[in-house]
Amino acid sequence: MTDLSAPFPDAGPRRQATIFVAGLGGRKPRVPVDAARLETSAQRALSPEAFAYIAGGAGLERTVAANRAAFDQWRIVPPMLRDVSQRDLSVELFGTRLPAPLLLAPIGVLEMAHREADLAVARAAARLGIPMVFSSAGSVPMETCAQAMGGSPRWFQLYWTKSDELAASFVRRAEACGCGAIVLTLDTTMLAWRPRDLELGYVPFIRARGIAQFTSDPTFRASLAAPAATEGLELKPPLTLSTITAFAEMVRRYPGGLVEKLRSGAPRAAVRRFLATFARPSLTWDNVATLRRMTKLPVLLKGILHPDDARRAVDHGVNGVIVSNHGGRQVDGAIAALDALPHVVAAVGDRDPVLFDSGVRTGADVFKALALGARAVLIGRPYVYGLALAGEAGVREVLENLIADFDLTVGLAGCRTPREITREMLVRASEGT
Fold first, then answer.
1. Alpha carbon distance 216, 174 (integer Å)
2. Which DSSP symbol is given to 216?
């Protein structure tokens, strides 16, 4: 088993001391510690389009609200007088011991938050030994991020487009650049109705943002010469300064020399092909079986909410499931991910690890998810807010704060390791003790 744990000894008290000593010198944290202030500070730093894309959810955003409300329905009951002076936050996943039960969720179009985008996140993750899950909608090719991470763990999140050949190419590239698992996202076979984006008339992909995994892929680039590259959305908006600027963005983001890009028309063809290819509403369990045959890496399914789907996933030979509703971005009024978690855990049993995301903001949230059966938790929007505020350093500070908060919660709840966190430590808010 690979051991990358480099544990965080006394992470909570050490982080507190660092902040308080800096405060003695008149320096306050540049990245807010409070989750609500972190979001509002990021909103001020981001463009309206960027904040809408990152923070927004589907429809009336009832699922976004439900994700947070679900955590409030559980209360921690801390037992007293336990020796928790020595704590070890590490967990084991697929033969690798990680320093904490945390991963960075795959989030696309990170260039909307910071110019260094995925690369800044990759460096921050590597510095702490926290796995980053590369997004199919990344702004930086996976190979570039992998090189920056060295031996630190990383996974790859696969959006299975209409092209099976492209899916296979993505998997081969993920294997070649040292990814330790493939995460197939199930809940985004189409983009949901997202009013914040629609009211601004803005989607990043049409400006060639968030398609770096595609434009760096040999299979995708080879497909641009085919007539089908012009299928889908016809990019014929009225000629305005805005459309000229958007076209310039397309050209700038597409790899290669300027003259060749202008001569070939490849940048606009790439955007058209992406828009025509990305959505895959025909995705079925047959694709899961194909993916299982395609790679020897562990395969996890992300977007599982129903216990029947969890059981079926295990039957298809996957290695884990991620309970997630995409942070409320896909189905308005969907079940809160935390409400689904115990039922999925019961369905899977001890056959595969169950991971969790959607709505995690604090160390107490991580604790509750683990108490309800998750092996580890994926953190999403908060690290993007840190990225927007201070780049790589901002991501690292958000993670350090979350790890410190979790460490203190673990100890104050009478635990020394994540393994000691159990369902018996929680009660429903309506039940009391």
1. 13
2. T
For residue 286, the SS3 value is helix
pLDDT of residue 317: 96
Mean pLDDT on 52-74: 98
Helix, strand or coil for residue 69?
helix
For 19, 248, 253, the CA distances from 212, given in Å and listed in that order, are: 37, 16, 8
The pLDDT assigned to 316 comes to 96
Contact by Cβ (8 Å): 215, 144: no
**CA dihedral sign, ordered 319, 320, 321, 326:** negative
Closest CA to 399 of 143, 153, 91, 122: 122
* Phi and psi based region of residue 358 (left: phi greater than 0; alpha: psi -120 to 50; beta: remaining): left
pTM: predicted TM-score of the whole model, two decimal places: 0.94
Q: How far apart are CA 6 and CA 151, in angstroms?
A: 13
Query: Could you say which DSSP state residue 326 is in?
Result: G
Average pLDDT over the chain, rounded to whole?
A: 93
Q: Is 316 assigned a catalytic role? A: no
Domains in the chain and their CATH numbers?
2-195+280-288+301-341+354-428 (3.20.20.70)
Query: Which residue type, as a one-letter code, is found at position 21?
Result: V
Binned at pLDDT 50, 70 and 90, residue 432 comes out as low
Whether the per-residue pLDDT at 231 is higher than 60: the answer is no
Q: Of 58, 61, 50, 55, nearest to 329 (Cα)?
A: 58
**How many angstroms separate the CA atoms of 400 and 15, rounded?**
7
Of these residues, 114, 306, 316, 326, which one is catalytic? 326
